């Protein structure tokens, strides 16, 4: 079986973002650059660093194989200069293999791992607004995706996930657990939370989903889960999360001083996109009805926001929330059926001041209240086999997978349990443990472990 079909059959999706089916991403034809994202965009996460340090051989093999598949002229593993141990491990692998893959060593700034920012760093090219790296001859894939591809080439489907559990836990660690493992079990594997009441972020502190304890208890590890961060119940991130939409809008209308810091530091604005959050805040402040301003081009530019959070968590001196405003406007534009259309004649160039406006990752961590865990050295990896798993049918962009098993069926780990819907974009899903299927719904499949 050729590599592209191996990837499709194994159910590989992008591990560094929203879970775009990898076989679809790689079906777009020849590219100039294949960029492997090892920058671990979010503060606190250590998953990709663990993979590069301990499983670099598999990452490099997959990078070489995918480069050949895509006809890429150049292949770069992009990571931060500060990752000295990971750089040493990868360079040893590259030298041993006499590989043509090279390292692209980036400054430690946020959001270095944003794929459009990374394309700009590695190639100097600007992906056009609402575009994808392929528009400028690039494909970007996460190092964990490379690990999955290496396994797929050996006939192993995507059933287990590496992730970081850190923050207010007794033993921050990297885990390797079956897809469908509960967040509660993952937190317990990290020694448990230090307090009885806490707040959880799924992903990183800047862009991750914010969850109460009860919400986190209902969550399970998916193919795209990169980390679980446990925070104090009164942490700045937790407090911001409870501000209502209406209160947020009232504050935006009354307190924005039009300093334009949100725009000056916006990573997408700095690579040449027309996004200007301060203009969005100004027009929002003079309008009593959001629907009346959706035809305004500055407002429509909210659609190209990458939601990195620099504007509200770092730049704004008034503590306002331009990111949440943009998220709300994205939803309003979507509901109104208004699609973003870029100016076909425009030329998008990097802002000359960009180098001086990169925000050090450590300063971002301090601003959002997670600095106590920023420099933790996490190099342990714990394995775990739960008594049951709850496997969601939607762990990727596109249509949810179609179950092909029924209640009472016995399944083996790696067995296909849900396939791609006919004519739809999606990804296969496999049993992450051996056992018996005890529930099948339109949302998830639950398997109870044998024995």
Structure, described:
The protein is of the alpha/beta class. Helix content is 32%, strand content 19%. It contains 18 helices and 19 strands. The chain has helices spanning 3-10, 22-25, 47-54, 56-70, 84-97, 115-123, 143-153, 183-189, 213-217, 236-241, 245-255, 261-264, 267-270, 277-285, 297-300, 310-315, 322-335, 361-367; strands at 33-37, 74-80, 102-106, 109-110, 138-142, 160-167, 173-178, 198-202, 209-211, 227-232, 359-360, 381-383, 388-392, 402-403, 410-411, 416-419, 429-430, 435-440, 444-449. The strands form five sheets. It has a six-stranded mixed sheet, with helices on both faces. It has a four-stranded parallel sheet with strand order 3-2-1-5, sandwiched between helices. Strand 6 (160-167) and strand 7 (173-178) form a beta hairpin.
Write a brief caption for the model.
Helices cover 32% and strands 19% of the residues.
Itemize the secondary structure elements and their pairings.
Elements: H1 3-10, H2 22-25, E1 33-37, H3 47-54, H4 56-70, E2 74-80, H5 84-97, E3 102-106, E4 109-110, H6 115-123, E5 138-142, H7 143-153, E6 160-167, E7 173-178, H8 183-189, E8 198-202, E9 209-211, H9 213-217, E10 227-232, H10 236-241, H11 245-255, H12 261-264, H13 267-270, H14 277-285, H15 297-300, H16 310-315, H17 322-335, E11 359-360, H18 361-367, E12 381-383, E13 388-392, E14 402-403, E15 410-411, E16 416-419, E17 429-430, E18 435-440, E19 444-449
Parallel strand pairs: 1-2, 1-5, 2-3, 6-10, 7-12
Antiparallel strand pairs: 4-11, 6-7, 8-9, 8-10, 13-19, 14-16, 15-18, 16-17, 18-19
Helix pairs in contact: 1-7, 3-5, 4-7, 11-14, 11-17, 14-17
């Amino acid at each position: 079986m050729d590599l592209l079909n191996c990837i499709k059959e194994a159910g590989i999706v992008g591990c560094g973002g929203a879970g775009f089916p990898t076989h679809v991403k790689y079906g777009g034809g020849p590219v100039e650059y294949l960029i492997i994202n090892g920058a671990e965009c979010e503060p606190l996460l250590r998953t990709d660093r663990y993979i590069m340090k301990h499983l670099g051989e598999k990452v490099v093999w997959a990078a070489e194989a995918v480069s050949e598949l895509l006809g890429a002229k150049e292949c770069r593993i992009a990571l931060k200069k500060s990752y000295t141990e990971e750089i040493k491990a990868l360079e040893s692998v590259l030298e041993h293999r006499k590989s043509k893959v090279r390292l692209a060593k980036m400054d430690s700034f946020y959001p270095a791992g944003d794929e459009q920012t990374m394309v700009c760093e590695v190639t100097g090219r600007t992906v056009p607004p609402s575009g994808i790296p392929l528009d400028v001859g690039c494909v970007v894939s996460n190092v964990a995706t490379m690990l999955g591809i290496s396994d797929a080439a050996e006939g192993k489907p995507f059933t287990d996930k590496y992730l970081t559990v850190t923050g207010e836990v007794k033993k921050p660690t990297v885990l390797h657990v079956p897809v469908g493992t509960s967040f509660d079990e993952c937190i317990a594997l990290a020694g448990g939370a230090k307090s009885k009441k806490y707040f959880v972020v799924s992903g990183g502190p800047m862009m991750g989903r914010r969850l109460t304890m009860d919400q986190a208890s209902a969550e399970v590890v998916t193919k795209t889960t990169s980390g679980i961060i446990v925070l104090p119940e009164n942490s700045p991130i937790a407090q911001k999360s409870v501000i209502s939409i209406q209160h947020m809008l009232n504050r935006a209308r009354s307190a924005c001083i039009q300093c334009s810091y949100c725009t000056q530091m916006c990573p997408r604005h700095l690579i040449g996109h027309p996004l200007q959050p301060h203009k969005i805040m100004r027009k929002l402040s003079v309008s009593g009805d959001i629907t009346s301003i959706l035809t305004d081009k500055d407002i429509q530019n909210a659609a190209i926001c990458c939601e990195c959070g620099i504007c509200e968590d770092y730049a704004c001196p008034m503590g306002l929330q331009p990111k949440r405003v943009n998220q709300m406007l994205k939803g309003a534009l979507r509901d109104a059926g208004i699609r973003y259309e870029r100016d076909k004649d425009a030329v998008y160039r990097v802002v000359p001041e960009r180098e001086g406006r990169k925000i050090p990752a450590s300063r971002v961590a301090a601003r959002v209240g997670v600095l106590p865990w920023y420099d933790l050295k996490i190099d342990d990896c714990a394995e775990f086999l739960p008594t049951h798993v709850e496997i969601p049918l939607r762990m990727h962009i596109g249509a949810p997978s179609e179950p092909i098993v029924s209640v009472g069926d016995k399944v083996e780990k790696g067995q296909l349990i849900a396939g791609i819907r006919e004519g739809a974009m999606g990804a296969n899903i496999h049993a992450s443990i051996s056992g018996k299927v005890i529930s099948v719904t339109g949302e998830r499949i639950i398997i109870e472990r044998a024995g």
